[in-house]
Design a protein that fits this description.
The complex is a heterodimer of chains A (57) and B (400). By secondary structure, chain A is mostly helical. Chain A contains two helices and no strands. Chain A has helices at residues 2-19, 22-41. Chain B has 400 residues and is of the alpha+beta class. The chains are: A mainly alpha (57), B alpha+beta (400).
Chain lengths: 57, 400
């Protein structure tokens, strides 16, 4: 029983290590960028829609 | 003040280890103006590293460690103005300056039970403040009451030739008569699902009570909801693209690995590759978001929603684990106006966050009011009227 509990605790630690794995984080970050891009591209905006601008010559 | 603002003679770390030894030999405009108004700089306050622009996983994502909440030091004080919220809630300072790109004044205000005022974009100069997003960043006060926020905002707002995005406007509160009359006539847009569908079990009762109390002060509630748009992806794309550009030299340099949070590092790296097409599409969407708000403001004067749907989370809990966020509600729930923080920031609108009680876990919860550009006088008058009839803003955490 105690051994099983220790194993479960160990699993939690390993899981935390896993979600913080740099390779996994890099992949997820790239996926997030693509997911956001896909959401934005679904939006159909009139061709005349300009972004707000702060550029003033 | 949040350690994102430069102050002569003090370190300015931006909460990030690569800048631990940075000093900037000048005062930010907001700091200089507070000094001129008689303010005394008591402390530079901890913040999430680089204001969290890469998307951090842990509340400990800071050179100074996790922001601890005075109501329960095992809970987070919120981010990225973590120290500003905690110091005001603990009574260490009467007010503090925070900054918001998307949620960084609102979240710590809600979690710590203080009043926070996010000004209209351009009302307060950003000169001398770390830039995370040129088009989203706002500097604003966090205090014990709306009246105190008003005093601090009056001191720091105004035109500034050093900030090209300065709106050239000043802030003056409503006169007494107008402030007294405002709550009786103001039309407040509200969607009941913000509380009914989205509030956590701990926060729900206090939020319902807060809305009922506000209704007694300002009775004209009308139903209005924002159109369904990808507010979260839009605001995230804008600040990620701008932030990664601002910090590109750091990201590609030898000190980048010193940042605390591994997820934030991955997010910043990936953000360097956001396409111009997607950034500009997000910016174009801001035009649509502004139009949607303008439409609502023909039928309502301000919009009411929750500050946050949950109470402060444990400092050990990953922030990307609780599941659905306000800007990304579960499809089965009605969206209401729960994306108001992301939407309001996209449109550069002012907001006031104020406490409305304690959740069943003894932690603060609060509401927010958002108005049209430069409606700070009305927002302050409404929150002040609410605070004159209630005492939530006077509650303090037990000294420990």
């Amino acid at each position: 029983m105690a051994k099983a509990k220790r194993r479960r605790a160990g699993t939690g630690t390993e899981r935390r290590g896993h979600i913080d794995d740099p390779a996994r984080l890099a992949r997820e970050a790239r996926e997030n960028v693509e997911k956001s891009a896909a959401e934005l591209r679904k939006q159909r905006l009139p061709i005349a829609t300009e972004p707000p601008t702060v550029y003033r010559p | 003040m949040k350690d994102l603002l430069a102050a002569r003679g003090a370190p300015t770390t931006w909460g990030a280890p690569p800048y631990r030894d940075q000093t900037i030999d000048a005062d930010a405009t907001a700091v200089r103006r507070l000094g001129r108004a008689g303010g005394v700089l008591a402390a530079k306050l901890a913040m999430v590293e680089l204001a969290g622009g890469g998307g951090y996983r842990y509340p400990s994502a800071s050179l100074q460690g996790p922001g601890r909440n005075p109501w329960d030091t095992e809970r987070w004080s919120g981010g990225s103005s973590s120290g500003s919220g905690a110091a005001v809630a603990a009574g260490l300072v009467p007010f503090a300056l925070g900054s918001e790109t998307s949620g960084s004044i609102g979240t710590p205000s809600a979690y710590c039970g203080v009043t926070g005022l996010r000004p209209t974009y351009g009302l307060v100069s950003r000169h001398g403040a770390m830039a995370l997003s040129w088009t989203l960043d706002k500097i604003g006060p966090m205090a014990r009451s709306a009246a105190d926020c008003s005093i601090a905002l009056e001191a720091i707002a105004g035109p500034d030739a050093s900030d090209a995005t300065s709106a050239g406007r000043r802030y003056r509160p409503l006169d007494r008569r107008a402030a007294r009359a405002a709550p009786k006539t103001v039309r407040i847009a509200f969607a009941e699902e913000d509380v009914a569908d989205h509030a956590s079990a701990e926060a729900k009762r206090a939020l319902e009570k807060g809305v009922a109390e506000l209704r007694r002060v300002a009775p004209r509630l009308v139903r209005e909801t924002l159109p369904e748009l990808p507010y979260g992806p839009a605001v995230g794309t804008v600040y990620a693209a701008e932030g990664a550009t601002i910090f590109a030299e750091l990201i590609e340099g030898p000190r980048f690995e010193e940042l605390v949070d591994a997820r934030q590092k991955a997010g910043l790296r990936a953000s360097l590759d956001i396409r111009a097409r997607d950034y500009l599409q997000a910016m174009r969407l801001r035009t649509k978001v502004s139009a949607a708000f303008a439409d609502i403001f023909t039928r309502a004067d301000v919009i009411l929603s929750v500050g946050r749907t949950i109470t402060a989370t444990p400092i050990t809990r990953p922030l990307d684990q609780p599941g659905r966020t306000a800007s990304n509600p579960a499809p089965s729930r009605r969206p209401g106006n729960v994306a108001l923080i992301a939407a309001g920031n996209l449109a550069g609108l002012p907001a006031i966050f104020f406490p409305c009680g304690l959740g069943t876990d003894g932690l603060p919860v609060g509401l927010q009011l958002v108005g049209p550009p430069f409606s700070e006088p009305l927002l302050v008058a409404l929150a002040d009227a609410y605070q004159n009839e209630t005492d939530h803003h006077r509650r303090r955490p037990a000294a420990s």
